Amino acid sequence: MRRRDVLAGVLALAASPASARPPIRHHETPRDLLSPPFVDGDERDLTLADFEGRVVLLNIWATWCPPCREEMPTLDALQARLGGPDFHVLPLSIDRAGLEPVRRFYRETDIRNLDLYIAEDTRAMLALAVVGLPTTILIDRMGRELGRLAGPAEWNSPEAVAQISALIDERKQ
């Protein structure tokens, strides 16, 4: 990329309001992604390969993390709006106490559209190169990382919905 192109991109980004930017900046090229083993709410063993063919928004979180707790309703709303055969929000909890705190949190906060998933904390954080919570990784249909965001976001915002809808629609064109 030429210096002039980089400068033009930076200026365009700076000129747009932060609220209008997509929550996840894409990498220049998709990256391979390791998957830790995890289980779902029925305690079935899974990996990210089980979701290939769909666009996935993988959110690594824990019930003891205040920013994670705040953003979970927005992830629930995003799943309700876009979830289906082409898109899935995968909230991967790293709670050490197992599935019960996650189930309790879902009941207390009226989370209705998100499935339950849990992984061993250290293993998941190392495999996914996570340094803080929440961390959200956008994954393409082939299981590659397109981009990531460290920190919370409003996942049901018009910008997030537009960004993810565009990825979902890529296959349909």
From TrEMBL:
Residues 10-169 form the Thioredoxin domain. The keyword Ribonucleoprotein does not apply. Gene3D superfamilies: Glutaredoxin. It holds the Pfam family Redoxin. InterPro entries: Redoxin, Thioredoxin-like_sf, Thioredoxin_CS, Thioredoxin_domain, Thioredoxin_ResA/DsbE_sf. Keywords: Cytochrome c-type biogenesis, Redox-active center. The keyword Transit peptide does not apply. Its main location: other. It is found in: Cell envelope. CDD domains: TlpA_like_family (cd02966). This is TlpA family protein disulfide reductase. It comes from Paracoccus maritimus.
